[in-house]
Amino acid sequence: MLTIRAFDTEAGDRFADGEIPGFVHLYIGEEAVGVGTCAALEDDDYIASTHRGHGHCIAKGLDPKYMMAELYGRAEGYCNGKGGSMHIADVDAGMLGANGIVGAGPPMATGAALSIDYQDRDQVAVGFLGDGAVAQGQVHEAINLAATWDLPAIFVVENNHYGEGTPVEKQHNVDNLSDTAQAHDIPGLTVDGMDITAVAEAVGEARARARAGDGPTLVEAETYRYRGHYEGDEEPYRDDDEIERWQDRDAIDSFKRRLIDRGELTAEEFDDLEREVEAEIEAAVEFAQNADPPAPHEAYDDMFAETPPEIERFATAARTTTDGGERIEESRSSSEPRSDGGRSGGERR
Amino acid sequence: MTAQAERELETETETMTVREAVRQALREELERDEDVYLMGEDVGLFGGVLEVTSGLYDEFGAERVRDTPISEAGFMGAATGAAATGTRPVVELMFSDFAGVSMEQIMNQMAKMRYMFGGKAEMPVTVRTTEGGGMGAASQHSGTIHTWIAHFPGLKAVAPGTAASAKGLTKAAIRSNDPVFVFENKMIYEQEGAVPTDEEFTIPLGEAAVEREGEDVTVVATQRLVGESLQTAESLAETGVEAEVIDPRSLYPLDTETIVESVRKTGRLIVADESPLSYGTHAEIIARVQEEAFFSLDAPIQRVGTPDTHMPFSTPLEQEVLPDGDDVREAIERVT
Amino acid sequence: MPRVGLVVNPAAGRDIRRLTGGASVVDDYAKRRVADCVLEGLTAVADPPSVRLMPDRSGIADHVLAEAPDELEAEALEIPLERSAADTRRAAAQFREDGVDAVVVLGGDGTTRDVAVEIGSVPVVSVSTGTNNVVPSAVDGTVAGVAAALVATGTVPAADVVERHGRIEARAETPNGEKRLVALAAAEVSSRSFIGSRALLEPDDLVGGVVSRAHPGDIGLPAVAGALESVSPDDPGGVLLRLTDPEDAPRTARAALAPGVVATVGIESVERIGPDDPVRFAVPDGVVGADGERELELTDATVEFRVRADGPRLVDVDATLSAGSGAGAFALEAADGPPASED
Predict the structure, then answer these.
(1) Interface-testing mutation among A154, A160, A176, with chain C (most C C-beta atoms within 10 A)
(2) Number of residue pairs across A and B with CB atoms under 8 Å?
(3) Closest-CA residue of chain B to A124
(4) Residue to substitute from A170, A175, A241, A245, interface C, most C β-carbons within 10 A
(5) Distance from CA of A161 to the nearest CA of B (A)
(6) Minimal Cα–Cα distance from A90 to chain C, Å?
(7) Which residue among A335, B214, C159, C181 has its CA within the 20 to 30 Å range from the CA of A67?
(8) Regarding predicted confidence, which is higher, B47 or C171?
(9) Do C197 and A262 make contact, defined as CB atoms within 8 angstroms?
(10) What cofactor does this one take (chain B) (predicted)?
(11) Is pLDDT of C199 > 60?
(12) Stretch B269-296: mean pLDDT, rounded?
């Protein structure tokens, strides 16, 4: 949770500084959901994430260094600079990707659960979705399929109470989003998403059910995002009092207090931990800042397992014009169009 | 596979319909690889759309020939997730028009995952779907959308015109680690042809076939129009015009070289594809030919396709808009 | 005009017992319908009381007000909302301050407890739409409304048909100071370390506790106690239970520990305790629960329980209706008397 908060705080700052391009959606405030969920999973279980995916990545064990490099668009990022904040993935680590399409996680999780079930593997697949995504048709299709086939899937609804800038009650006629599970005849429950122990316990039970062959479960975790929908959001839709009320129940603070009360953590140890995490994130930023950008010709990599000539011709041309693949900073930052990679007509000789 | 090897494999053949050829391809791949399974609406007990998968449920069981709910977005998404996590789904989308319901899964997930993730996701998924008018199925069950798919980066598209290519392309699609759409024209399921029996027979994606050699005009035809163009070519031969008929088989990747080589020889090109003419498959083939063989052209290139309408229901209306061998003949006559 | 308060807890009945047990889901639509029934029930008396609803952000109260019978004066309370149990407590406090004559609560034990904390001596009709339902009754909303109307209008004197439910006070002494908790039917001690998903999940985790009532028809610890003792909700005092592994226990009991969960519980000791008698549990690492839900995380603590007699005044719905009938509340004379004979 600390790593996520530090990572996203830093990502927000670096975005504000203009170092990180594109969009960033921060997970600050919602840490207990991702961490609680992943704490209840085994290493080789799958998760399919959302556009607000940094927390899920870190909770699943991805390295902040390569995540930050991806946010910076570097070649050493998780996606070699092709994905950015909204598409960080590491399938081998069980992370099926952040996703820029609201509601895309559940079909992905159902698919992973289908593979698991088909090959009789001892895993589960979690599809994260936000409250807004509950209005998406594909979400219900995915839940229906998983439920009908008793697939080992878990759908975790992160109800942060706003779908983009619109409050949940203006987007759904159903108020308790876990009620939607009833339509699919699967268990649906609501837990306190600001309490990591609640989320972990619920997902743990859901995992046991999935592994027993009893099918999917929908877990709604009530939580709150402290930052805007994206960085730069003016937030006209809520007031400071509301934010403060949720911050009073902050997942990190409350868990810290409870651990200290239990004698399992001292305030000094917590401070050390926080410093350690901050150092790790600082190192990640430094790594990302100093990492090489991808060479232009890498734009043509990874379209297919088997690259067709249609793409190969551009790749070849780009490799030639970028000096044999050497990474050239100027070409990335330049607003001038790159030299033409054989795109114009005419017979090629 | 070398052309030599392909020819050797093709030596032993059996006559079967396009439907049987697709079914045989599915059967062989289900037998060859346990990670392969079929899924779609009524592919199981019911036998699939137009009975293509008939019998496979009895042979392979409900786990491997999976009936899905009528939920195109759901099962297309699940197939995408499954392909990324170690299995090889073969999806049947009953009618290509239904891609509309599942397009999000196709364009934003299936097509983009490998690329967005820097190569960290495999995507060995095959989508079989039916296309085309001619049976009075009207606008929502007769469309041709192969241009969309061939156009969209990250997807591969094949469209067999013969029984042999139906088998070879389907098998190649299933064995590919990329998402491949197989567009089956529903009017040629009964069309017979010699199909190689070898279980290793596949047609590499991106290889066109010269179905008939000729010196005077090149006809690039797809799907149903392959057979109709061949018939047209035979009848035109009596008038002294020898048409070369090429089935590209694979729309993306497209075998530009075989087509260009032919046009260099004939100097004339007809592109016949049952799809809307504007911004279409025809245009892509023509663009490539003029890029590579502009100075070899002796006459304006001709297109045969559907006008920019939907497929009407009533037979006279449907026949009006459907391209056929006569349209190909007229196109040839315009330029020879 | 007599007034009735109505609390519908939108969050009741959503916890993990839908997954781990057999608890049913009462969705908002169903709650709304029950609330509609309550309002309809209020019209059973000749001059129905007015009704005020706890507002919510789920739209339940809005819907119910829109559907309210024409002859009823109905409005929503004006209180700030937090989407938490605080809303229920705030509404109950407001009802008490406003001097309503009866309150109908739709929820489970948790909701009734939240109301009880603030409601003072206002008669409470508690209707089950929650999970752990020892205190609320499974009565139809309409009937509950009728009962509330009879009590609120004084057609049936409240004193005749309410019983004072007991409550249990827990006071924990911890290295970090004192912590308090109130339960209505049962205060449990669990060996689980964290509140987690709140519900008491594993029978093995139950160390013991105190109940203010005991009957095999209850759910949870009161059912365990009820296997051996019988204590009515308004009996003074309660039962202290200390549990152990059924394998080593001097005796065991089968009881419904949660909806859909019947388990064998090992009983180390069971004893009746008088009102206000303190009993203690040492909690080296565990959680104290209230009415089936884990509430208070404790380490190196001693927790002291006392059963108090001053819980909520709960309306006995059956008794109220019988009394109402006896008072002639439902048998109306035709307004102009029988039709006159023509001859």
Answers:
(1) A176
(2) 181
(3) B85
(4) A175
(5) 25
(6) 30
(7) A335
(8) C171
(9) no
(10) thiamine diphosphate
(11) yes
(12) 97
Per-residue 3-state assignment (H helix, E strand, C coil) for A164-206: CCEEHHHCCCCCCHHHHHHHCCCCEEEEECCCHHHHHHHHHHH
Task: Kindly report each contact of residues C214-217 with a partner whose C-beta sits within 8 Å and lies 24 or more positions away, as own/partner.
Answer: C214/C238, C214/C239, C216/C255
Specify the residue for token string 């003072």.
Answer: C120
Nearest C-alpha of chain B: how many angstroms from A312?
A: 11
Q: So where are chain C's domains?
A: 3-164+312-326, 167-308
Tell me the chain B residues in contact with residue A345 when contact means C-beta distances shorter than 8 Å. 287, 290-291
How far apart are the CA of C75 and the nearest CA of chain A, in angstroms? 21
Identify the CA nearest to C196 among candidates C120, C118, C100, C296. C296
Asked if residues A110 and B78 have their Cβ atoms less than 8 Å apart, the reply is yes
Please provide the DSSP assignment of A312-341 as one string: HHHHHHHHHHTTTT---HHHHH--SPPPP-
Q: Considering only alpha carbons, which residue of chain B is nearest residue A123?
A: B85
On whether both B118 and B74 belong to a single domain, the answer is yes
Cβ(A78)–Cβ(A287) below 8 Å:
no
Nearest CA in chain B to A80: B118
Containing structural domain, residue B256? 209-335
ipTM surpasses cut 0.85: yes
Residue B109 reports pLDDT greater than 90: yes
CATH code for the domain in which residue B266 is found = 3.40.50.920
Total domains present in chain B: 2
Q: What is the CATH number of the domain that holds B23?
A: 3.40.50.970
Q: Which residues of A touch C299 (CB under 8 A)?
A: 261-263
Mean pLDDT of A268-287: 97
Contact A345/B119, CB-based, under 8 Å? no
The shortest CB-CB distance from C19 to any of A192, A209, A263 is to A209
pLDDT at B239 over 60: yes
Picking from A25, A47, A26, A27, the residue whose alpha carbon sits closest to that of residue A37 is: A47
Residue C76, classed as helix, strand or coil, is strand
The nearest alpha carbon in chain A to C297 belongs to A258
Are B237 and B164 part of one and the same domain?
A: no
Amino acid at C145: G
Q: Is A321 exposed, middle or buried (0-12, 13-18, 19+ CB in 10 A)?
A: middle
Taking an 8 Å cut-off on Cβ atoms, the answer to whether C19 and A187 are in contact is yes
| Closest Cβ opposite residue A111 in set B77, B104, B116 | B77
pLDDT of amino acid B8? 54
Return the SS3 of B208. Answer: coil
Q: What number is the average pLDDT over the span A203-213? A: 97
Rounded average pLDDT over B197-216? 97
Find the range with the poorest average confidence among A171-175, B325-329, C4-8. Answer: A171-175
Reported as type and span, the H/E element at residue B293 is helix B281-293
Q: Binning pLDDT at 50, 70 and 90, where does residue A340 land?
A: very low
Q: Do C19 and A178 touch (CB under 8 A)?
A: no
- Give the CB-side neighbour count of residue C314, counting CA atoms within 13 A: 28
**Domain shared by B179 and B281, yes or no:** no
Q: How far is A204 from chain B (nearest CA, A)?
A: 22
Judge: B119–A80 Cβ closer than 8 Å, yes or no: yes
Residue B202 lies in a domain: no
Chain A residues inside the 8 Å CB shell of B118: 77-83, 301-302
Based on DSSP, count helices (H) and strands (E) in chain B, helices before strands: 13, 14
CATH architecture of C167-308: Sandwich (2.60)
Q: Which residues pair with C171 in a beta bridge?
A: C180, C304
Give a yes or no: residue B174 inside a domain: yes
Q: Residue B204: inside a domain, yes or no?
A: no
Which chain B residue shows the shortest CA-CA distance from A108? B81
B310 contacts B133 by C-beta, under 8 angstroms: no
CB-based contact, C202 to chain A, within 8 Å: no
Q: What is the pLDDT of residue A138?
A: 96
